[in-house]
Amino acid sequence: INAHLLKYDTVHGTFDAEVAHDQESLTVNGDRIAVSAIRNPADLPWAAHKIDVVFECTGLFTDRDKAAAHISAGARKVIISAPAKGADATVVYGVNHDILRQSHQIISNASCTTNCLAPVAQVLHRELGIESGLMTTIHAYTNDQNLTDVYHT
Q: Distance (Å, rounded) from C-alpha 107 to C-alpha 100?
């Protein structure tokens, strides 16, 4: 199904590339990409694939101990795409990326809301000053939320 979803996308249309697959990989224009479906990050083949950085985007492993399972599996660093408890650093690029150190292994990329607001707020505060503020976030619903307008009888 991954190959089909890559090749045919409702929003972006048909991907202009040769896409093939087998049980263990996707192949795009002749470049093989290993694919696995392993629930426990400690069991992933990061060492065998010589993976340097893992982008943890499942939303399931957002604290240091859980994300560190990727390190145990052989990755050198983990970037969590959400707020994370116990991360070595929480970074919003363009705002505080200068705090990153080579020694950091578990890094949080904060939240999507923070990444939208912080760069703009930083410039406004620096140039004009912000005494207080209010913002509203509007984004698509996720699988763990119910739609208000859901069909019912």
A: 9
81 contact partners, CB below 8 Å, separation of at least 6: 55, 56, 57, 109
What is the pLDDT confidence band of residue 152, given thresholds at 50, 70 and 90? low
Catalytic positions, written as ranges: 112
Domains of the chain: 1-35 (no CATH), 37-143 (3.40.50.720)
Mind listing the pLDDT tens digit for each residue in 77-125? 999 999 999 999 999 999 999 999 999 999 999 998 999 999 999 999 9
Burial 58-87 (b: 16+ CB within 10 A, else e): eeebbebebbbbbbebbbebbbbbbebeeb
* C-alpha to C-alpha distance for 150 and 93, rounded to whole angstroms: 37
Question: What radius of gyration do the chain's Cα atoms show?
Answer: 20
Residues β-bridged to residue 27? 20, 32
Confidence category of residue 150, pLDDT binned at 50, 70, 90: low
Distance CA 121, CA 109 (A): 17
CA 148 to CA 141: how far, in whole Å?
10
